[in-house]
What does this fold into?
Amino acid sequence: MSSNAVNNINTTATTPTTISQNNQNDLYNQKYINQQVQSTIPKTTNLIDDIKISTVLPNSLDNIGESYTFYQKPNDSMATTFNISNNENLATNNLQNITSTGKGKDVENDIGLNNENSNITTSSTDGINPTQTSYPEIPLTANTKKKRSRNPSKIPRPQNCFIIYRREKHQLISAKNPGIANNDISKIIAKMWREEPPEVKEIYHQRAKEEAKRHMLANPGYKYTPRASKNRRKKKLNEENKKFEENHPLKHEFDNPPHQDKNHENIRQWIDNISSPSQEQSIINTLAQGTQNMNSYAMINPLQTTFDDPLYSSSNSGSLAYSACSSASTSSTNLSVYSWSSNSLSSSNISSNLSRGSSISSINEYGNIQQPTRIYEYEFQKPVTTQIYNPYDYKLTQGMSQMHIQQPSVQSSPPIILNVQQPNTTLPLQIQATTQPIQNTIQAQIQPPIQIQQPIQAQMTTQNINIQQPQIGTQMSPPMQPTNTQNVANPMMNNLQNPNTQSSPPGTITYATANISNNIGGKSQFIAVTNPQIQTVYATQTNSIGAIPAYTNDIINPQFQEIKQMPQAQYQQQYYNISTQIPNMNNQGNFQNIYSENRDGRPNV
DNA sequence: ATGAATGAAAC
DNA sequence: GTTTCATTCAT
It folds into this structure.
């Protein structure tokens, strides 16, 4: 199987095209080579198990600026049936911390306030909808199950406590009062709500809080944008009509990307309005390149109080899988993008960070014209028990710019088709498929058809990494930050010594460091920034942190601050000082792990 | 599309 | 302080 299996990989490279030639927008005009290498790995037998895509990087440390995007539409081959039951349960279980039992069961009953609802079970009260789609759905809002007649792509607001309460009670009241009008139901439930004791209300407040958190995680960068009031709308409309007529002849939408607009809706709208699929794809690809700082890490079991931190957990933290999937499915588009780039991979042993692709809904701050960069690492493994292929399960092999895609060993499953957007690179792309039974490797190498100098724009990624004097052992820790400063001064990066003694030679690694206020006596403490609006501080003593420092001008909503107990490492040497390099801190989806104290040891033992 | 409720967010 | 919009579904 091994040698002749090479032939089983069909690789066809489309003619490379630069993206968005017509586009005047700098962001979209990053001069990527949209070399779409399509590699079809036929499912000839049930042997192919693992497909690895990697760049052949002789020295990835020197190749800042490389990035790779793999994308697919869910309807394509990879998105076959997916067992959502596990996923749903997982998401549900987290939700049910409060309601404690299954869907539709009333909170009141659980806390013994009254029994009128005791046996009511509704089909999908919590918006948890046993859906037939092949993608896991996280019950973001109840509305997810209902098709929105107006604008299906619009992200609904998170429900407030009363709306949640009303939604839960609705069916009950309706059942007890046949023929009752909804308006009256609202009245009744409002009265019920007002008369609920504080502890019950608190439950719903908590649920609303969870909902808001989840909503933010699933819709990074979402901003509530109510339409202007009717009066102001009229007024504004008149003004704008005037201006528009004066200044602008009409152009095609494609020529006018809403690059100044921070509103996702508009971007999505804009993309939706573009008729040509190829155009759409190009845009999406390009956008994806600018959006690599997305973070599924932030989406990892957002409701769990203790989730596996990639930096702390061992290499198979399987719990990451499903919620990460779920977040992708909440996108309004059908496109999934997986991307990673090699930039910050400095040596083969370095623990990198999980980079997971985004859906279009995650695109944010695209107005910031920075070259996409890094992320990476990786650290989760497909649950071995999952028989059905989960298109979202992938992994990068440790320390290399590789991506593993697991293919189910199901004979009937379709072949995997990968569309690979290769950046301007002189490096060949390597696709490998490994057969499981005999662990043979089949390979196909695709030479880039053209070689163009990557025009890396002046930005942080071009910063030279100064290799400091090699230090050994404990001396490699970054300096402790003073405890009397407030904010993360420069989240971008400081070049610090790579404490990984196992890398040969010890190289540099990019850190973002933080000055953490109220540091606890110099004890281990770090900030995991999963989102500019969601910051988690791990501390050895939770009561010692007064404030979570902000590092941008973004408003940190206190309700999204968390302080968690420092997780116990399984092995002490797993503590590792690393952070991701973040090109655009205004972006959602970045994450940044900051240790105020370094420890010896290598990552990912 | 509207209403009936409450509350969150934006203006 | 005012407006919109989250939910529901009959009208």
